[in-house]
Amino acid sequence: MLIGYITLGTNDLDAASKFYDKLFEEINGKRIMEELEAQGFIVWASDMDSTGFAVCKPHNGKAATAGNGNMTALSAGSIEKVDAIYNTAIRLGGTCEGKPGDRGNGFYGAYFRDLDGNKLNAYYMAGE
Predict the structure, then answer these.
(1) Does some domain include residue 95?
(2) Residue 66 lies in a domain
(3) What is the 3-state secondary structure (H, E, C) of 27-44?
């Protein structure tokens, strides 16, 4: 496995947790680790052996900011799941960065930003 986990900063752990709990329900993701008081983080994954996705309060105590040019891609498993993830993100207050659609070469994707402005992509690659 190339990537163990990805972490994005948040300024509102409660709002981020609600956003990602609902978003990851679409692809059978669940919380696998969390510490809400001292460190302030939550990790979601399909299971303990799969790539994780985490949100946390920045360790240095400063405001979390979205990285320019950074994006996290979520493997959805089907075109229908791409649409569901995108629609859930928008319904929960995320913003559109590119509606679901065929991007060519068997790649179907949708782009959005979370509540903190982090850019994400839900995608399905034909043949997966």
Answers:
(1) yes
(2) no
(3) CCCEEEEEECCCCCEEEE
